[in-house]
């Protein structure tokens, strides 16, 4: 049996297997960033005894937002919404961390309370944000004054305090995908000449200080970090990626963090850039980082087994396949077929393509003619008959679905 399905620790927690739910921005929060009840359904469905989930990015302040509809963790209302999520996960014996972030320049004044988005430096880039009117190009932004930085770091600590109150088992700092932490780290977006710019020791200062703020609340062993060396999301780049991330990994090794979560550059957000390419990021970071590594970035089951068995990663995080298979660890373990994901539902919507997927054992329990029709539909990329508890969701498909005996 592959090590992927054996117990492992992310201190101080022991998990029954090594398949992790990756954080996915799904835009199912209300207008003030409070998680909606369907989010508790989504996470609860994907929880399992001894399983590990990482909840999607939550903004630490209104000025740190990137996407209207994404959750926050800066208001009391957010705590109430997130408590439903953590309660659903803990009820099934799982553990859950919350990813926290500040969008930096990947934003727009229409979602920051009217204030201009901020960044380490003003460097032209191609990015996007989501406003109430939909996706737009990122708006004009300005460079942070050095005296403003302590306030943002305080926002990270406040977010961690609220996450603790909401029942999360830990937090993950989003240092990837071209958001503010990543903007400070990489020299293509950081042209500062003060204590936060120039050599890598300075460019990493903001990241390390943010980790410190989170660790004050949870302890370092309940704080993770996500990085994307060589990643293209957010139009970030570095003149020497290997030197920057190698130095950082070695520096992080002595902090006693819960884990390092590494996105492979073969993907960009929800797109695959290099089909069939072997993952490279976790193997590179393993040479420099002595702690637990979670690999992410377009993995399928065999690839996940291989990277864990090889020792380049200790856990593997899945996003797309976990979105449509709430029982993904068991499907991978037993070789059961995977339900296709609905890419059109990734960036917002209702329960359809989000919390209306059914575990395999429930699908297999359908009468024989129902299962056969369902299999045909699945080949066409739809989820005919998979409509939530007691099929309570209205059918979102067309002609073929209306004729399905499973409906």
Written account of the structure:
It is globular, with a radius of gyration of 21 Å. It has helices at 37-46, 76-91, 149-165, 180-185, 200-203, 205-218, 241-252, 281-286, 301-310, 320-324, 328-334, 360-364, 368-379, 399-402, and strands at residues 8-10, 13-15, 19-21, 52-59, 95-101, 118-119, 128-131, 134-137, 142-143, 170-174, 223-227, 259-263, 267-268, 271-272, 293-296, 315-318. The two termini are 38 Å apart. The longest helix is centred in the middle third of the chain and has 17 residues, at 149-165. The model is unreliable at 369-407 (pLDDT under 50). Helix 1 packs parallel to helix 2 (76-91). It contains 14 helices and 16 strands. With 407 residues, the chain is an alpha/beta fold. The strands form five sheets. It has an eight-stranded parallel beta barrel, surrounded by four helices. It has two domains: 3-334, Aldolase class I (TIM Barrel), CATH 3.20.20; 360-402, no CATH class.
């Amino acid at each position: 049996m592959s090590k992927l399905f054996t117990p492992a620790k992310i201190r101080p927690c022991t998990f029954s297997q090594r398949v992790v739910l990756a954080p996915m921005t799904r835009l199912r929060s209300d207008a003030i960033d409070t998680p909606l009840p369907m989010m508790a359904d989504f996470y609860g469905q994907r929880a399992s005894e001894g399983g590990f989930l990482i909840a999607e990015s939550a903004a630490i302040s209104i000025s740190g937002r990137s996407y209207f509809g994404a959750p926050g963790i800066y208001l009391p209302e957010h705590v109430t919404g997130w408590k439903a999520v953590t309660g659903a996960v803990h009820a099934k014996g799982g553990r859950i961390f919350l990813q926290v972030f500040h969008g930096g320049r990947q934003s727009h004044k229409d979602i920051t309370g009217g204030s201009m988005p901020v960044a380490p430096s003003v460097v032209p880039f191609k990015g996007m944000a989501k406003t109430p009117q939909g996706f737009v190009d990122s708006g004009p932004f300005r460079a942070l004054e050095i005296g403003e930085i302590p306030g943002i770091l305080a926002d990270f600590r406040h977010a961690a305090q609220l996450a603790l109150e909401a029942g999360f088992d830990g937090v993950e700092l989003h240092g990837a995908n071209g958001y503010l932490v990543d903007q400070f780290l990489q020299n293509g977006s950081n042209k500062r000449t003060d204590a936060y710019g120039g050599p890598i020791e300075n460019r990493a200062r903001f990241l390390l200080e943010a980790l410190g703020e989170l660790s004050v609340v949870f302890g370092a062993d309940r704080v993770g970090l996500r990085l994307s060396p060589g990643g293209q999301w957010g139009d970030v780049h570095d003149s020497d990626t290997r030197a920057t991330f190698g130095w950082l990994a070695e520096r992080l090794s002595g902090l006693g963090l819960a884990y390092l979560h590494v996105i492979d550059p073969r993907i960009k957000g929800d797109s695959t850039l290099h089909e069939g390419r072997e993952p490279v990021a976790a193997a590179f970071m393993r040479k420099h980082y002595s702690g637990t590594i979670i690999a992410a970035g377009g993995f399928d089951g065999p690839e996940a087994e291989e990277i864990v068995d090889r020792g380049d990663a200790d856990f593997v995080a899945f996003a797309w396949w976990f979105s449509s298979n709430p029982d993904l660890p068991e499907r991978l373990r037993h070789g059961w077929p995977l339900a296709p994901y609905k890419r059109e539902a990734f960036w917002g919507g209702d329960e359809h393509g989000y919390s209306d997927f059914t575990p395999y054992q429930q699908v297999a329990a359908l009468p024989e003619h129902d299962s056969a029709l369902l299999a045909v539909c699945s080949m066409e990329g739809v989820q005919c008959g998979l409509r939530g508890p007691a099929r309570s969701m209205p059918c979102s498909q067309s002609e073929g679905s209306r004729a399905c005996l499973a409906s």
